[in-house]
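Need tokens for this chain, all 190 residues.
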Amino acid sequence: MNRKAFTLIELLVVLAIIGLIVALGVPQLKRVFRANLKSASVRISGMVRYAYDAAAINGRIYRIVFDFDKSTYRLEVSNTDQLVSLSEEDNNNNSDSTATKPPDYSPAVGEAGKEYKLPNGVVFDSIENLNTRTKIMEEIGYLYFFPQGRTEEMIIRLKGDKNNTGYYSIRVASSNAKTKIEGRYIEAEK
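Here are the structure tokens for all 190 residues:
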């Protein structure tokens, strides 16, 4: 007999097999995205520690630049060790002719200065400065490190952009840049 179509039973068997594969694969996929969240958190934590040490050793202001749109981060170094106001209003109101302009930043030397992309399925949720109570959720965010061995107290939050894989939060202490990574969304204390 010359048969050119599938029977209903054959179609149901194929659909059952596809359903089984999907049911077994989705939890594994979530684990992969969760592992990517953790891995990205550990890498950012390492860059925080490196930036803190480099600022103290080299006597320069360092900053990590978080680009929300491109899901990237990189380390930059200033051309000076002086902290100046970054607001134009403060600079315009200063009649002193020796007023300094905000420092220029360039990529740090070596591997630390290259742009790192977050792993697939991971994006920045927010960066919250606990000193100024500002929360950045788009465009560009910064974390500064000063030569005197200080930084800003921050919470950097990453989230899975697919399959509801959750959050990872990195809390940075201001006095020693010690980081604490948690596999959840950390709220700032009021």
